[in-house]
Model the fold of this input.
Amino acid sequence: GEGRGPSRASNELVAYKNVNDVPFVRELVIQVDQKNEAVLLPIYGSMVPFHVSTVKSVTSHQDNRTCTIRIFFNVPGMPFSNDSKLNSQGAIYLKEITFRSKDPRHSSEVVQQIKTLRRQVASRESERAERAT
Amino acid sequence: MTDGHHFNNISLGGRGGGNPGQFKLYSGGLAWKKQGGGKIIEVDKADITSVTWMRIPKSYQLSVGTKEGLCYRFFGFREQDVSSLTNFIQKSTGITPEEKQLSVSGHNWGGIEINGNTLCFNVSSKEAFEISLADVSQSQMQGKTDVVLEFHVDDTTGANEKDSLMDLSFHVPTSNTQFIGDEHRT
Done:
């Protein structure tokens, strides 16, 4: 079951509580919702949210006019991954996803935004965990 | 005049998604026509195997599964359309539309459900996303626990999208009992 301690485990962080809270976007592009700490990814015509705490790392690679954006997610069994936080028995994890982008500027912007937000949330969560001990 | 229900602003979901068009549900089945011409989808009533409603941001989505294992998604319906269409579908096809919920928690762990050509990733029994296995160009194992799916990307699929999905991978821990693989485990 999910731990209910004084410190919230990172797997209790949710991007949105309700469908209506998800921003509606016309253009299907990778986006960052700073307020809700979410990364929105266009998968089969839908914008799929991921809380930034699920993101392990993000890389981008540019080749002529085509950019590749690769997002790695936290999964159990990795070095430094906190398996006790990823406790869902029998669960399957989305581990990695790659997009090809036609817009180099948008691509580097969004990668930077994800990195910054990830850092902010990670340091806040580790402070919170420290205070709790 | 034809029977049934007509809608002028219903989009076809899926890859490259969100093309607006006209949607028609009539006693013989359903049809969708892209605005300005082009793509046409027609599904005969006899070929419909499943119907699902889902609340999505700003509207409702209707998913229609067919005998061939395909799944069409239409969105742009309003709340009041749901009940009238549900009644019509029940009467004309005998199928009771199911309701599915969209996962918006943003978690990356859950379960996988495969129906026909459609792979659905569910988080807490709610749908996070769906992909069509018909578009997978290659799938391979990476190590003993990861499965990589690569997607066809060409100029038509990527024409109206800035960011196109190239590949994704799932991590299936050895503790998973749904997909135990074809290796004998000790």
In short: The longest strand of chain B covers residues 48-56. Helices of chain B lie at 79-93.
